Fold this protein.
Amino acid sequence: MRTRTFITGLVALPVNAVLFGAGAITVLSIPALAENAKYLLPAVIVAGLLASVPVAWLLAPRLRVQRRLFRRPRNV
């Protein structure tokens, strides 16, 4: 299994939670949308599930440890 795929799998669940939370707060805090919450909240769930994997795929390379940060300068 590639490292990026493994990191994506680990990060997808927290990303899904954040996307769902942002969508749910948006739907429930706007009175015009809150009236139709029984239809909009399932849409927010599906949209969060569909968007979480691509967002996690984009975040995965940024979460890897970069070796060059830990190298000591050569002229010391």
